[in-house]
Amino acid sequence: MSINATLIIQMIVFLILVGFTMKFVWPPIVKALDERAAKIADGLSAADKAKSDLAAANQRVEQQLSAARNDAQKRLADAERLAQQMIEEAKGRATEEGAKIIAAARAEAEQEAVKAREALREQVAGLAVKGAEQILRREVNPGVHAELLSRLKAEL
Q1: pLDDT 10s digit of each residue in the chain, 156 long?
Q2: What total of structural domains would you count in the chain?
Q3: What is the residue range of 26's domain?
């Protein structure tokens, strides 16, 4: 056989192989490649969607954290205000109690002073009577002694 005949036969066999491959082998390969490309595209779109969902979730978390911080700051401010108010009320009550105690102490001191004056008057009156007895024992002059006793009584 000549080289031309061999070359022609090889070309025919090659064309049959190409035709068989195009008809039976190539469609499943193309189908598998298309399915694979679709899966990859779906995976990429799912990844993009998950990425955007994650960004949205992070944003919501940041908003909630910000709201929680603001709420905590408001509560702390309210607690501080309440504590300050309680302190002011306690100071007011303590001042009132102090004023009551001082007023009671002054009233008691005044009563004690009145009692002490009364006791002193009684002692002075007793001393005056003793003095009068001694004067009367020495000298009896009712006019002078009455005037003396009246002046003593006025001074008391």
Answers
A1: 688 889 999 999 999 999 999 999 999 999 999 999 999 999 999 999 999 999 999 999 999 999 999 999 999 999 999 999 999 999 999 999 999 999 999 999 999 998 888 888 878 877 777 777 776 666 656 666 677 767 766 666
A2: 1
A3: 3-155
